[in-house]
Write a structure and sequence with these properties.
Rossmann fold; 11 helices; binds S-adenosylmethionine
Length: 292
């Protein structure tokens, strides 16, 4: 099992600085097609678990161990390297999408329980990992684009999770598209018709603001790809209250992201939900300022 580097000791900090300071090669964005053999694949009950996302919502999700095993069999070097380092994140190589992160559960519940309009909307699950936010949007009759940095994650986890939760696979896939690669080039990726950028009614993202070096790229996705009347919703751990001595990326994160958005002056940012249960967590809503 991959682990957060909780210890926060000097060695880890030095390692983090080295990673930050080196020049990283971010993989360009591209569309991931679903193969016929994936559509037809039958999963054994041992391959997945029925996860309680929150009371009243269970989803079938591929087990972490199964995905990891499949990726090892395919000799996926980025994932093998992360595992050998016992790490959840290796910047620009593996960005953590194989597991479900803390705030995904909060945002899922928030989306399910609050008055968010999904019917017929075009939704982006940005940094989707397991794709739980997108699955909820699909259950509420949206059209969903799933984006994750790692193509491995899209193939081994996100696509199977969609297939597991809908009996009519052909039909649900008509409401989905899948993308991999870096946010910077994803912002500039044109639709299959080639001449236009797809714009979204809703952009959902959870636990994606941990790397201060990537906040500008992340923000550009909202700025360029959210419709005029679109809504962005973002969740993340704000700070530590008690418990673990270290949580990846706390200290940068959503506060810096919020500052960046507010300084640009194009969007209004509203805190929709906040909790303090060991980790202080927050959900932000982002909408374009009305022209006066
Ligand atoms: C920590 S995981 C969170 C996954 C999922 N949203 C959750 O909450 O369980 C961060 C996600 O952001 C995506 N991500 C991080 N940096 C990225 C980048 N520079 N470009 C594209 N995607 C990125 C990763 O692929 C990963 O899925």
């Amino acid at each position: 099992m991959f682990k957060f580097r909780f210890s926060g000791d000097k060695e880890d900090e030095e390692e983090d600085k080295d990673i930050k300071n080196s020049t990283l090669n971010w993989i360009s964005a591209s569309k991931v097609e679903v193969l016929e053999m994936q559509v037809e694949k039958q999963y054994e009950p041992v391959d997945y678990a029925e996860n309680k996302i929150f009371p009243g919502c269970k989803l079938k999700l591929i087990r972490f161990e199964k995905a990891l095993h499949d990726l090892q069999m395919e000799n996926c070097t980025n994932i093998i390297e992360a595992e050998s380092q016992n790490s959840d994140l290796i910047p620009a190589k593996y960005e953590g999408g194989l597991k479900i992160w803390e705030c995904n559960y909060d945002l899922s519940q928030y989306l399910f329980k609050n008055d968010v309009e999904f019917q017929g909307k075009l939704v982006l699950d940005l940094g989707c990992g397991n794709g739980v936010l997108g699955l909820i949007a699909l259950l509420k009759n949206s059209i969903v684009h799933f984006q994750d940095y790692n193509v491995e994650v899209i193939k081994a986890i996100t696509i199977p999770n969609v297939l597991l939760n809908f009996d009519d696979r052909e039909s649900v896939l008509k409401r989905c598209q899948f993308f991999c690669g870096d946010w910077e080039s994803f912002t500039k990726l044109r639709s299959s018709k080639g001449d236009e950028f797809v714009k979204y009614d809703l952009i959902l993202t959870s636990d994606t603001t941990y790397n201060p070096d990537n906040l500008k790229k992340l923000y550009e996705v909202f700025k360029q790809r959210l419709k005029e009347d679109g809504i962005g919703i973002c969740s993340r751990v704000l700070r530590l209250i008690a418990g673990k001595s270290y949580y990846f990326g706390v200290g940068g994160g959503i506060r810096q992201f919020q500052n960046l958005i507010e300084e640009d002056g194009i969007f209004d940012v509203e805190t929709m939900w906040k909790t303090r249960d060991g980790l202080e967590k927050k959900i932000l809503k982002i909408t374009r300022k009305q022209q006066s």
